[in-house]
Amino acid sequence: MFENTKELSADQRSNEPWDRRQTATAGVWAGNGAIGEGADGYHNELYSRRGFIQTAKSSGVTVAETKTLRFLYNPSTVAVTHGLDGQNMQLAQWQRSENMTGTALLPVNNSCSFSLLFDRTFDVLGPRNKPSAKFGVMYDVNMLYNLCGINQKVKPKIDGFEDDGDWGDGKGKPSSDAGEVPQTITGPMQMNPVDIYFGGHRNLYFYGFISNISINYSHWVQEMIPTRCAVSLTVTGLPK
Prior knowledge:
By secondary structure, this protein is mostly beta strands. 10% of the residues lie in helices and 27% in strands. The protein has 2 domains: 50-150 and 187-237, no CATH class; 152-180, no CATH class.
């Protein structure tokens, strides 16, 4: 459970850009344009389209509620498998509803696996006035958690507090033993449909839900803020 911070919460919609010194590695600036376009006056630098994972447009989520995990670097390899498996049935997205409990309908056995690297070294070494500088790669991982439904925004009932907003002492303020009320808690992964773009909307694409996550933190600063991590993802494909 995160400690009731606005930066690490279920309200996060995207992971902000990286320090330019990180994205300009090897003379390539990881922006949103095409190769050779130049950006922000740096015409001698090359562009490299970055991929991203986004809440699926077909999920019924509004634009304001859309969540996006931006890649720092595109994955070196993307493994895609297709098959039919009658023993492991998956639910078609267009047949889902809010009241459904997850009835399996289709013998789909498609998956997409890839690894991502997140590095916030330059962010953490600079001024701590941004969430990415305060929390390092935890900020990016938190965005991934939001995409997968691991983070959930709730107002649980605890001592002196009711989820309807009334305080236990009836005076409009918390009781002395109420304590802090957490807004975001961590829970199990959910089957949230996502669109995955490897390099842009016109590049390699995959649609499904994230079914497996493996995170390996490897670098920290003295305050034990993680500055680098490798994330391995497996996405189960869905018919669209």
